[in-house]
Design goal:
- The protein has 283 residues and is α/β, with parallel strands linked by helices.
- It has one domain: Rossmann fold (3-Layer(aba) Sandwich), CATH 3.40.50.
- It is built from eight helices and nine strands.
- The strands form two sheets. Strands 3-2-1-4-6-7-9 form a seven-stranded parallel β-sheet, with helices on both faces.
- Strand 1, helix 1 and strand 2 form a beta-alpha-beta unit.
- The longest helix is centred in the middle third of the chain and has 29 residues.
């Protein structure tokens, strides 16, 4: 099939990664799906579908990401769409998070994404074609108490993707950062979310309440991951994809609330804002 795409999807054993993988196959495309541990459902799918190749991969291991990219090229000859989905969350007050907890999350969410991207981009550049899709979060647009450390990794993805979009456009490659809100996956049940081991009582009324909320809302989130996967398929098919794609009404509401609050801050502090230039700078 002339228009058949080859996808490389990380973190595909469950949640968004699994749904995107299944959607790509239903669309008639081929996929290399990577998982960190037990392959489970993907193993069964791959056994009956020659268009799916499953690899075990810890994205925090840079050498392993290069090997996985080579295996993908050997299997299907090209990579059209990279979906950097592997990652996990940390629910913690900023002060509560330990150095080990934070670094482990950054190793996967940020440095792991960079490892995979550096491994895949040479093949895209050689063909002057491709699309890098980085899965961020509503937390990448607007942070919230209890989620600051996790959100900081997603804020990093926002900056990385915005620069990549400009750097790669002239090479025929697109870059998009996707910001999902609360979707009904197993993210909040401990499968992809860790909680700070160091609980500080002074945060009981703030972060403590967020911990309770996360438990209560698990599997009751408003977003449909199957519909998200369909949106990603549409995104990959676009001839002019956006740099940012917020998904979910909750994400849109959070972003608009943040921009409104920033506008209010600017209005209140505009005199201070504009009076920090040198006097010889023309107005």
């Amino acid at each position: 099939m002339e228009n058949q795409k080859v996808w490389f999807i990380t973190g595909a054993s469950r949640g968004f990664g699994l749904e995107i993988t299944k959607a790509a196959l239903i669309a008639g495309d081929k996929g290399v799906a990577t998982v960190r541990g037990q392959i489970n459902e993907l193993t069964e799918i791959a056994a009956d579908n020659k268009n799916l190749h499953v690899l075990t991969l810890d994205v925090a291991n840079e050498a392993a990401t290069k090997t996985a990219a080579e295996a993908a090229i050997e299997k299907f000859g090209k990579i059209d769409v990279l979906v950097n989905n592997a990652g996990f969350g940390l629910l913690s007050a900023i002060e509560e998070g330990t150095d080990m907890e934070i670094r482990k999350m950054y190793d996967t969410n940020v440095f792991g994404l960079l490892h995979v991207t550096r491994a895949i981009l040479p093949y895209m550049r050689a063909r002057k074609s491709g699309h890098v899709i980085n899965i961020s979060s509503v937390g990448g647009l607007a942070s919230a108490l209890g989620w600051g450390l996790y959100a900081s990794t997603k804020f990093a993805l926002e900056g990385i993707t915005e620069a990549m979009a400009d750097e790669l456009k002239a090479l025929g490659i697109f870059a998009t950062v996707v910001e999902p809100g609360y979707f009904r996956t197993n993210f909040l049940d401990g499968s992809s979310l860790t909680r700070a081991g160091n609980i500080i009582d002074d945060y009981a009324g703030t972060v403590g309440q967020m911990r309770e909320f996360a438990t209560q809302v698990s599997y009751k989130q408003p977003g449909d991951p199957v519909k998200l996967a369909a949106a990603i398929i549409k995104l990959a098919a676009s001839e002019n994809p956006p740099v940012h794609l917020p998904l979910g009404r909750d994400t849109l509401a959070a972003y608009r609330a943040k921009t409104a609050a920033m506008e209010n801050d600017i209005a209140s502090w505009e005199t201070v804002v504009v009076n920090t230039d040198h006097d010889d700078v023309a107005i």
